[in-house]
Fold:
Amino acid sequence: MKRLMLKTLVAAAALAIAGVAAAQDRTFKFALQNPKGHPLEIGANKFAELVAAKSGGKIKVNIFPGGTLGGDAANVSALQGGTIEFVMLNSGILASQVKDFEVFDFPFMFANGKEADAVVDGPFGQKLHAKLADKGIIGLAFTELGFRNITNSKRPINTVEDLAGLKLRVIPNAINVDWVKAVGANPTPMAFPEVYAGLEQKAIDGQENPFSVILANKLFEVQKYLAVTNHQYNPQSIIFSKKVWDTLSPAEQKALQDAATETSKFQRQVARDSAGTALADLKKAGMQVSEFSPAEQAKLRDKFKPVIEKHGAAIAGTVTELQAELAKLRK
Structure:
């Protein structure tokens, strides 16, 4: 019996080695919006290392950070066409492909990273990624951008009322436009590579992003005030071109999937370790930091409720499913 098991294991190992050996030499492009040194770029490089190792050096992944291959919408279109193989982007942006992804942009949906991990790594996250296949996209894994906070060049933000009248850049989708309107500010949808210039030229007063994004993209050079609101958590999706995926062998597909799964855990830890350091560095860079009191946070939540109800109606089943998952986690 033991001899039979050993033979089976040896045969399986031989098949795996043969699969990698039979893999073609391939070079893939990986596009993302944040620059070198950001936790997402660090994660992308880790992914490239893992893919090389798991494919026996057959598959090379070239990283294109900082929006050098265009904004998110352009990247997704190129991925569907097969001219870019990998993209890492805010999961909520995929609502333009599958509306259910809009749930990831709902304000105050997740209380902390641990909750988010359990949801995106579990059946809920896997189910959403699986829905992308019909749109020419393979969802491989979730990484993390983090909790978003608001910056501007006009004034300190200590209350919800202080947001009134500010022209804020938002991720180009409907829920983000609506929550900015709900707090009395003026939303300006804009691709991320355009944000620094927009702030510098005063076309917009402010924007909202996690501390690491504000630091890595040097937004502190054109923004003086930072309000710690933690109003939205952004998971990121590592996605791959289905057009290219369908040309890969099972061994190649497994190498990419395994590398993405490992990268997701590595990158989230990098992101969380860097968040506190990034805030300290932003203070050192001269940003004036204010924090919403519990009472102001409650007011902000109240402002967002109609927005969540409006957008939740169209994806009621998905919202109910997510809320049920969160309720189990919070018991």
In short: The first helix runs from residue 2 to 22.
